[in-house]
């Protein structure tokens, strides 16, 4: 699986871009604020219809323009053409010249895992970021999960709206409660099954990156301890005070322990960064194991922040991507380019919203950088 072509119109600081990408390693070089991360963001948008920066569509429109267009050709078992248009008045999503009405008909055409500074929120941030981590993994591996999550979210919103009313409608509340429990029980079951599969992968990745400095443990922390329907009913008096639903998978979390101590409370900045990378490596390994092919890896300048010893723990994931003819897109400045992370690199210069392929630098016609 790889992105063979990327087309941008009025996206971020790119007025216009058309570029072909082969499988393999691509290094985007340039100073800060030139548009390197914007290219990764566009690729991630094609895969998930979201920005990994946590912003809405309006923030991705080039200044002074009405909307943006992002398109691409994805090659996996076949070839698919994707078109995304967003403006404040209109949103269009097309796959192979057909409009997409349901997200389940689209997600999975391109699978990506992004490594970026925002990943620290997985360790330091609120539980919401860790629920999204689990939800994205499940949506990428279980076709039924996204509709299930949408059902739960809609029931939760409707139920919370009822709880905010001055006069409660008991019959309506019971109806939304039943829907909440029905969808919620399935979400809890799938999350409970997921974490023991991902945890060993994250443990192995953390050992590699940290050179066996600490032992990682991940535990699923469900809001529902035993019976969702019973616990929801017992929380009813408090719900009226808080005017919201207080129990359910929308309050789940993923516990992160290093040597049995909370990583968020007691971990150093280096440990937290290492753990964030390990979680994303586990995500990539899990997707590869389920689908048989690696996702496209998007690495946004984080490798320059890791020392050589920690970067070496990242190499097995990149080695497997190389062996399976996967695709890796990395960003860096010329100065902090971690040369041990490439084998056969296509080098690109990003400057003021333009992208230019750089010539090969070695006499044999290829830019070769050996794994160490």
Brief synopsis:
The chain is an alpha/beta fold and 372 residues long. The protein has 11 helices and 15 strands. 40% of the residues lie in helices and 24% in strands.
Give a verbal description of the structure:
The chain is globular and about 70 Å long. The protein is α/β, with parallel strands linked by helices. 40% of the residues lie in helices and 24% in strands. Strands 2-1-4-5-6-7 form a six-stranded antiparallel sheet, with helices on one face. The chain has a six-stranded mixed sheet with strand order 8-12-13-3-14-15, with helices on both faces. The chain has helices at residues 36-48, 121-124, 127-141, 145-163, 170-210, 228-234, 236-242, 263-266, 269-291, 308-312, 315-323, and strands at 2-11, 14-20, 24-29, 67-75, 79-87, 91-95, 98-99, 112-115, 216-221, 253-258, 261-262, 296-300, 327-332, 345-351, 354-357. Helix 5 packs across helix 9 (269-291). The longest helix has 41 residues, at 170-210.
